[in-house]
Amino acid sequence: MTQAVYPVRAQFAQRARIDRAEYERLYAQSVAQPDTFWGAVAQRLEWMTPPTQVKDTSFALADFRIRWYADGELNASVNCLDRHLAARGDKTALIFEPDDPAQPAQRISYRELHARVCQLANAMRQLGVRKGDRVTIYLPMIPEAAIAMLACARIGAIHMVVFGGFSAHSIADRVADCGSKLIITADQGLRGGKPVALKANVDAALKLPGTNSVETVLVVRHTHAAVDMQMPRDRWYDAVVDSQPTQCEPERMNAEDPLFILYTSGSTGKPKGVLHTTGGYLVYVSYTHEAVFDLREDDVYWCTADVGWITGHSYIVYGPLANGATALMFEGVPNYPDVSRFWQVIDKHAVTIFYTAPTAIRALMREGDEPVQRTSRKSLRLLGTVGEPINPEAWRWYHEVVGDARCPIVDTWWQTETGGILIAPLPGATDLKPGSATRPVFGVLPALVDASGQVLEGEAEGNLVLLDSWPGQMRTVYGDHQRFIDTYFKTYPGTYFTGDGCRRDSDGDYWITGRVDDVINVSGHRIGTAEVESALVSHPKVAEAAVVGFPHDLKGQGIYAYVTLIAGEAPSDELRAELVRHVRAEIGPIATPDHLQWAPGLPKTRSGKIMRRILRKIAEAGSSQLAPDRLGDTSTLADPSVVDALVKERLAK
Ligand code: 6R9
């Protein structure tokens, strides 16, 4: 296979923090002497008690442990705020660009951000929130989202952010699982001029079982829409926070004390509460943010992710602020008021580093070059992608049209579980290949294994595992440590299994090929097929459901659902629409099925296992590929005629 290679640009390398020789040297040291390497990197943070221990980890099941900097003490909010006050007090920490471009943008200095975080932290203490308590954050992309996270960190409360696109049911499930005391939300969010009923969703969630732990709901006035306030449970944020002192004593946290929980979808069951701790996480996200984005003091850095996802946690809030950077928070969407918005925002705020998802690039590419070319984008020097594999065509458009063929692109592979970026080019060190995340960052040991767990050498394709720990790794599934071990460390014993497939080319560059488990990646958002199935079967007319992913031009993958109705119910377009609405209500709009096919029966093995491989083929295929001999081995099916019926129905569409 011939691959385009974009060599490191000399102009970039000259000024870069890390060039090729430095990358080779540091990488070799990081894997040969992890204690020395990560001990030195940890000094970039301000510790209340500097750690004397560095790495204490083992993936072996008999001896399993993941601890980093275990005797160190620090506070994450001190590292993101107080530490910068002397030299960067007046520097802009956050730029807020609202949904409506006619509304003024806000610039919040490190000094002001520190004061506002302290005020909320004091208010939370007054409301009875203590170290170790869980706090749910369900906010739009407004500065209060970052402020709430940092205020939790200040008092040692564990934040649990729920993405604003999740429904009341999803909020309730998460609140019940982690038992949070306080919810911080807003009257409404705004996306593309349309309100999102955040407070109403919280109200509905708190009517659902398991949510009794919640004592208080703090409500930010954002759109000023009228909302129900149920006293004394519901309190206006400004009424409780604005009168608080602007200093707040930070909690001393052990490096291994929890910083946050973030739920993510897996192949089975309900979403898992991924738990990250304080010291290793902060060291890792601050270091990778600086190295991968080649951060400079005067950069204006914009990551378009939502703080409801790990990318927002690590690379809008903790990494950039720990580094004293200026980070932009955008409330809106790429196509409002028009499809030029991203590029207009770049010009308006002189953004130098822009980090977004392939799905957004593909959608904007469809609109042609003109909406990009009517803007300048001269300030840009570096581009990044995250969330899913980027197709080379979209990469080239991003490079040539958005970046005027001037800006390197860092394709960053990582996961909620990994805390920070694990595989990515360094812009001053690594030649780029469209579609490849290229090389491991410092301390990361990727390997490819075949189905039997045999490690594959050289040019190969297999399942991606990691052979050793890195500081930003998740420590447990909240409340279910056994599930953590079972999910990640049992498939290929002695390694962390990522759930991704991957190819390594003859140069040693890594190409992520996508999930090999039952997780669908829709527009960079992880959805478990099991979650969508259980939402469908919770409808009284549904007997059984099977959900698979299929290739989708814009979203990367779409959601394809096969539904068997209970006896006596007839398929209809109305029922189909009702089931789609039902899934949106149970999980949220991001889980909306793209196709829903009626299935008189599902293809099962004699032991009753649904054969998803066949369902995937039917969902994927154009009609020519649906010839029976193209579906692979169907001999283990209990009733092969089921497949014929599904294919017939698919072809009839
Ligand atoms: C950060 C984030 C993780 C899954 C991951 C993989 C996919 C992420 C990617 C990528 C190819 C990239 N993924 N980045 N695939 N190239 N640069 O997205 O976390 O939401 O947990 O998703 O996303 O499949 O396993 P998360």
Give the strand line-up of the largest sheet. Answer: 12-11-8-6-7-14-15-24
Largest sheet: 8 strands, mixed
The total of beta strands comes to 31
Radius of gyration: 24 Å
InterPro entries: Ac_CoA_lig, ACAS_N, AMP-bd_C, AMP-bd_C_sf, AMP-binding_CS, AMP-dep_synth/lig_dom, ANL_N_sf
Catalytic activity: acetate + ATP + CoA = acetyl-CoA + AMP + diphosphate
Domain AMP-binding enzyme C-terminal: 531-609
Keywords: Acetylation, ATP-binding, Ligase, Magnesium, Metal-binding, Nucleotide-binding
SSE order and pairing:
Layout: H1 10-15, H2 20-32, H3 34-41, E1 55-58, E2 65-68, E3 73-74, H4 76-88, E4 92-97, E5 106-109, H5 110-126, E6 134-138, H6 143-155, E7 158-161, H7 168-178, E8 182-186, E9 189-191, E10 194-196, H8 198-205, E11 216-220, E12 234-236, H9 237-241, E13 253-254, E14 258-264, E15 272-277, H10 279-292, E16 300-303, H11 310-322, E17 326-330, H12 341-349, E18 353-356, H13 358-365, H14 370-373, E19 382-386, H15 392-402, E20 409-412, E21 446-449, E22 455-456, E23 460-466, E24 476-477, H16 481-489, E25 496-504, E26 510-515, E27 519-522, E28 525-528, H17 529-537, E29 542-552, E30 556-565, H18 573-586, E31 595-598, H19 612-620, H20 641-652
Parallel strand pairs: 4-17, 6-7, 6-8, 7-14, 8-11, 11-12, 16-17, 16-18, 18-19, 19-20, 30-31
Antiparallel strand pairs: 1-2, 3-13, 4-5, 9-10, 14-15, 15-24, 21-22, 21-23, 23-25, 25-26, 27-28, 29-30
Residues 264, 309-311, 386-389, 411-416, 437, 498-500, 512, 514-515, 521, 524, 526 line the site of ligand 6R9.
